[in-house]
């Protein structure tokens, strides 16, 4: 074996007490994601190493780039830890690279190695100069940075840094339930929550026939895209039709959205509690629409004690859009199908709702029974990023 993918944990290293748990979770996540490839994965406290087949490298990199908890990785050449092997390997590695200036940067974590980091860099640098033409050292701004890591048995040489997704491995936090609409904001919120290690399930409220099957398919596609950052995501589809109709029949127009969202939160609370979750995650962003003023949020939030995580609360729409493009959900999100919020939007939703009015309006109908029914009749689909069935077959 000539090369390995060498993974650095980054931020994990600060989690002293939890270190093994973090590393083991990352290890399992990597193993799951790469199960279709011929790889051998090993780990120690500082690094993870993946042996791979050359022809599968691009695909494997594509997967690695979406695994949270990896901050940086390298495609590294492997040699036995002795200076002669390192010298000749370095020459071999750089022979096809086009550069005029270089610098050698050595990290020696194996302290018994005869020369220290600086000295090793000097030895290797001198050896390169002796065996090449028209190349000079530039310690400040080299065209080529040759990095060497000296470890006990094997040492590693690499010329490139690849940025990973960062964050914490998915599963280092327990379950959160994402309110996933077909819009731009909620998939981004889900992505950001997963990035902090939250194991995600998604909940979609639909109001067929007022909302279309296309709208549902859009949410399924979005879930599939989010699932590429983890192994799978359960998508729970709530039939919200009767509740929504009752709201619009019985309640004051300007309070309909406030009440609708209070109903959603009540249902979310039930789902979270019944399925061992800890938090609700959603795409609310302060001030973006009438239901997302701080006053609205507090009146809506008042129906539950389950913590609500709002990863995009303080981002501008353009910042959210940037992330949605980066995670490839944008094009799906802007498809023009109505979701259950847009169908019933009143002309002038209240911006500063009052709890007392929301309560008296929603008490005009028996919402508790409807919520029980909605929770009982949840449809759940397990979604992976490789899901290829016709979406209509799934429900
Ligand atoms: P998005 O772009 O995510 O649709 P939005 O700006 O359209 O958000 P709202 O429609 O007010 O905002 O919804 C705020 C949040 O409530 C959404 O980000 C989402 O988390 C949740 N939400 C709204 N509608 C639904 C739905 N039909 N099913 C599940 N969650 C929903
Ligand atoms: Mg929306």
Q: Can you characterise this structure?
A:
With 395 residues, this protein is an alpha/beta fold. The chain folds into two domains: 3-163, VC0802-like (2-Layer Sandwich), CATH 3.30.2130.30; 169-393, 3-Layer(aba) Sandwich (Rossmann fold), CATH 3.40.50. Helices cover 37% and strands 22% of the residues. Strands 1, 2, 3, 4, 5, 6, 7, 8 and 9 form a nine-stranded mixed β-sheet that branches. The protein has a six-stranded mixed β-sheet with strand order 14-13-10-11-12-15, with helices on both faces. The protein is elongated and about 85 Å long. Bound molecules: adenosine-5'-triphosphate (ATP) and magnesium ion. Magnesium ion binds at residues 181, 183, 339, 341.
Task: State the main characteristics.
2 domains; elongated; alpha/beta; VC0802-like; binds magnesium ion; 15 strands; 395 residues; Rossmann fold; 14 helices
CATH superfamily of the largest domain: HUPs
Any idea what the radius of gyration is?
27 Å
Low-confidence stretches: none
Give the tally of β-strands: 15
CATH architectural name of the largest domain: 3-Layer(aba) Sandwich
- Report the mean per-residue pLDDT as an integer: 93
Q: Gap between N and C termini, in Å?
A: 47 Å
Topology as a string of helices (H) and strands (E): EHEEHEHEHEEEEEHEHEHHEHEHHHHHE
CATH domain fold name of the largest domain: Rossmann fold
Q: How many domain units?
A: 2
Give the C-level CATH assignment of the largest domain: Alpha Beta
